[in-house]
């Protein structure tokens, strides 16, 4: 007698359990966090003043008013999901122009004028998906990371002339896709750059501008860190600290200032364990607020830690923020003008999710521990093949697989 294969039945059952749990949570959280509903799953966001630039798994980026929730502009031109965003302000004549830079699964980098929403240029940048972008404004330097495992440098000096960006260097030492970037300028012709890949490898580079025509950027490996077990999802570098999030269910903080390239045993990072993979972080100590709090997005929950004692972080609050994975956390200094004309600035936090919403949280309320309004439900992880509805997004099979990996249920 032929045996019945029950594996598909088990997969379907686990997926139904997950789907039912999320439907219930979606109903309970439908008005929590002043949600803004979007047409796609949010992959990246940048916040400036009261506006947010949002990238999702559609082929456009959009500018949204965080106060009203209205879409102010749509930047259409990519042929695949927009996966990375950066904002760059530059002097042009007598005015300062704000430029939106987008990277996409179509392997291009595009520059847009945020005043007119017109495209300025398009560059065939990589041989695979563009996953991350970083701008050094004072150096007129753009850095991009990709699934092709390459980090590339682009000169922004003449970026407004409408021509494709000029490549001025690259790094090819990673053996896995380069997922995230961060760094800081250290002089007029120098910078430090951190690159993180999907294997969990973090490289710290010294960048030096060479006196050539055209100029080139030389990269020298300063140190390598292997304290994560798998994919780096976000990193923040500043004030001698490197804070990283990973799908290995940890957030780790490393004191870079005490690390020597010749030291065989670098300092042990401070690790914060989470119940599931961590996709995003916001270190308030490295923002203009300079407050000793770290906010993490793990699963659909926002957690806040007091890191005033760096070696002993303390969990002070948990918030059921979304009904699907949180993908990004950003600080929003909310500006309100009263009837008497006075301007009030108030710190808020913006979170995005695969539940297709942007949610807005008053920081003072997130910092106040309170009973959880919705019980966080632990559900089993279904196989990736059950995550996406095949063919529903109009993506290729390769892009569908990448989106399924992004969702990582």
TrEMBL record:
One of its GO terms (cellular component) is nucleus. It comes from the Eukaryota. Keywords: Repeat, WD repeat. SMART domains: WD40. Residues 397-409 have a biased composition (Acidic residues). Residues 371-409 are annotated as: Disordered. The keyword Repeat applies. WD repeats lie at residues 75-122, 123-158. InterPro entries: WD40/YVTN_repeat-like_dom_sf, WD40_PAC1, WD40_repeat_CS, WD40_repeat_dom_sf, WD40_rpt. The keyword Repeat applies. This is WD40 repeat-like protein.
């Amino acid at each position: 007698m032929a045996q019945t294969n029950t594996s598909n039945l088990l997969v379907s059952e686990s997926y139904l359990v997950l789907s039912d749990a999320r439907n219930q949570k979606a109903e309970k959280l439908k008005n929590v966090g002043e949600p803004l509903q979007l047409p796609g799953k949010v992959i990246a966001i940048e916040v400036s003043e009261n506006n947010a630039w949002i990238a999702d798994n559609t082929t456009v980026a959009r500018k949204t008013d965080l106060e009203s929730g209205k879409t102010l502009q749509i930047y259409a031109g990519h042929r695949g999901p927009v996966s990375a965003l950066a904002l760059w302000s530059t002097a042009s004549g007598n005015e300062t122009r704000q430029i939106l830079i987008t990277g996409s699964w179509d392997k291009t980098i595009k520059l847009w004028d945020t005043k007119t929403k017109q495209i300025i240029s398009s560059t065939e940048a990589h041989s695979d998906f563009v996953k991350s972008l970083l701008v050094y404004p004072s150096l007129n330097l753009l850095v991009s990371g990709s699934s092709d495992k390459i980090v590339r440098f682009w000169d922004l000096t003449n970026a407004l002339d409408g021509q494709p960006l000029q490549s001025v260097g690259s790094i090819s030492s990673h053996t896995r896709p380069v997922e995230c970037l961060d760094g800081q300028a250290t002089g007029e012709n120098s910078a430090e750059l951190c690159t993180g890949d999907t294997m969990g490898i973090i490289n710290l580079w010294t960048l030096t501008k060479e006196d050539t025509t055209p100029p080139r950027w030389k990269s020298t490996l300063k140190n390598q860190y292997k304290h994560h077990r798998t994919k780096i999802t976000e990193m923040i570098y500043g004030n001698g600290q490197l804070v990283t999030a990973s799908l290995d269910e940890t957030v780790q903080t490393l004191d870079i200032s005490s690390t020597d390239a010749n030291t065989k045993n670098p300092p042990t990072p401070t690790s914060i364990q989470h119940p599931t993979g961590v996709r995003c972080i916001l270190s308030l100590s490295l923002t203009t607020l300079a407050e000793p709090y770290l906010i993490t997005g793990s699963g659909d929950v926002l957690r806040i830690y007091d890191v005033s004692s760096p070696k002993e972080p303390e969990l002070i609050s948990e918030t059921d923020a979304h009904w699907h994975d949180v993908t990004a956390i950003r600080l929003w200094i909310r500006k309100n003008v009263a009837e008497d004309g006075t301007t009030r600035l108030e710190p808020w936090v913006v979170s995005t999710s695969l539940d297709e919403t942007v949610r807005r949280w008053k920081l003072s309320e997130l910092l106040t521990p309170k009973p959880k309004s919705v019980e966080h439900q632990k559900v089993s992880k279904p196989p990736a093949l059950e995550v996406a509805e095949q063919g529903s997004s109009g993506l290729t099979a390769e892009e569908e697989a990448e989106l399924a990996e992004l969702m990582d249920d």
